[in-house]
From TrEMBL:
InterPro entries: FldB/FldC_alpha/beta, YjiM-like. The keyword Phosphoprotein does not apply. This is Double-cubane-cluster-containing anaerobic reductase. Belongs to the FldB/FldC dehydratase alpha/beta subunit family. Keywords: Iron, Iron-sulfur, Metal-binding. It holds the Pfam family HGD-D. It comes from the Bacteria. Its cofactor is [4Fe-4S] cluster. The lineage of its organism: Bacteria, Bacillati, Bacillota, Clostridia, Eubacteriales. The keyword Iron-sulfur applies.
């Protein structure tokens, strides 16, 4: 395999390097806000002068510790989140001045109650549907409440101008990440799906957004030039796979490895780790709180009912990325995504005519053999 550009090392190691960066920022007097979900309005945190950081939640390292307090038959993401908190093994959690959660599922709601015994936690109450004026008003009120909490906790004033500036820089980051994701539209793509995932994941651990955006565009130029020069990372006949479903992390890279080790290539991630949040920009012309409310409320998460935003996006991506098959990744005991898989399968197979497979897994590595076997059979069928 060809050597990766040095910038890939920057992104894949950014989480570890981020521990040191966060400590240095704390030493400089910056406040840190720990987050779990893409529903958190990054722009409001940034406008407060604080640093937003994604908390450790995608490893089985601390699940055994979490199960001393939480049920075993609970989503691994929830157990991992609480496990890292209760064991103090997540430096980002340790340095956070405030933790923000959203009511995306019942398990998280209850876990936040226990989390608040360890840290200062603010929970944003999501509506159960993105439709209608009542939902819009509820979520707008939650964003305004969150703004007030940050102002009170950090003794700052979050002005409209600061919010507008934050919207602009975050939109620029979204555009850069979407252009990166669009590399998957090339035939063949100039990078593998695993490389793509690591850059997308690592981006959330880079806090100098202007530098990050420049690095992303440099990366894009570099890999495209190398492919044009004859370097091929992905075979021309690799089957093109779209991944949807639950968020991915290091523990679930086993699925990407199984796909790309059996003649496939992941060209697109629809889930929270990928395109779901970045595919729509915040309207920079509207009143900023209204614009943020509209943008975040319409993220196609399975906690919303109905969830047309997700299926519409999947159909759009199937066409744009010339997808051969769809893999739906479901974490064990994630009820909303598990129930929604029937509807997604119906849309993908009946409306789009594309083969579909669902994989239920957790953060352990015990099912690697089974996943490899199923992926090999699925890709061979394609």
């Amino acid at each position: 395999m060809n050597d990766l550009p040095k910038i890939f090392d920057s992104f894949s190691d950014s989480r570890k390097k981020g521990f040191i960066t966060i400590k240095n920022l704390k030493d400089e007097g910056r406040k840190v806000v720990g987050t779990f979900c893409t529903f958190t309005p990054w722009e409001i945190i940034n406008a407060s002068g604080a640093v937003s950081v994604s908390l450790c939640a995608k490893s089985d390292e601390t699940i055994e510790d979490a199960e001393k307090y939480l049920p075993r038959n609970l989503c691994p993401l929830i157990k991992s989140s609480y496990g890292f908190a209760v064991t103090d093994k997540c430096p980002y959690f340790y340095f956070s001045d405030l933790i923000v959660g959203e009511t995306t599922c019942d398990g998280k709601k209850k876990m936040y109650e226990y989390l608040s015994e360890i840290k200062n936690v603010h929970v944003m109450q999501l509506p159960q549907t993105s439709k209608g004026e009542n939902s819009f008003k509820l979520w707008k009120d939650e964003i305004l409440k969150f703004k007030s909490v940050l102002e009170r906790e950090f003794n700052v004033s979050i002005t409209e101008q600061k919010i507008r500036e934050s919207i602009k820089i975050r939109n620029e980051e979204r555009k850069a990440l979407m252009k990166l994701s669009a590399l998957g539209k090339m035939d063949p793509p100039p990078i593998t799906g695993l490389e793509m995932l690591r850059v997308l994941s690592g981006a959330s651990f880079k806090w100098d957004k202007k530098t990050e955006i420049e690095e992303i565009y440099n990366l894009i130029d570099d890999v495209v030039k190398k492919q044009e020069g004859g370097e091929k990372k992905v075979p021309q006949n690799a089957k093109r796979i779209l991944i949807t479903g639950c968020p991915l992390g290091e523990a679930t890279e086993k699925i990407i490895n199984a796909i790309e080790g059996n003649g496939g290539v992941v060209v697109c991630y629809e889930n929270c780790t990928g395109i779901k949040e970045i595919s729509k920009l915040v309207d920079e012309e509207k009143e900023p709180i209204d614009a943020l409310t509209e943008k975040y409320l319409n993220i196609g998460c399975s906690c919303m009912t109905p969830n047309d935003n997700r299926t519409n996006l999947i159909c759009q991506l199937i066409e744009e990325y010339k997808v051969d098959g769809v893999v739906d990744v479901i974490l064990q005991a994630c009820h909303t995504y598990s129930v929604e898989s029937y509807g997604v399968k119906k849309v993908v197979t009946e409306e789009e005519g594309i083969p579909y497979i669902s994989i239920e897994t957790d953060y352990s590595q015990t099912d690697i053999g089974q996943i490899k076997t199923r992926m090999a059979a699925f890709i061979e069928m394609l």
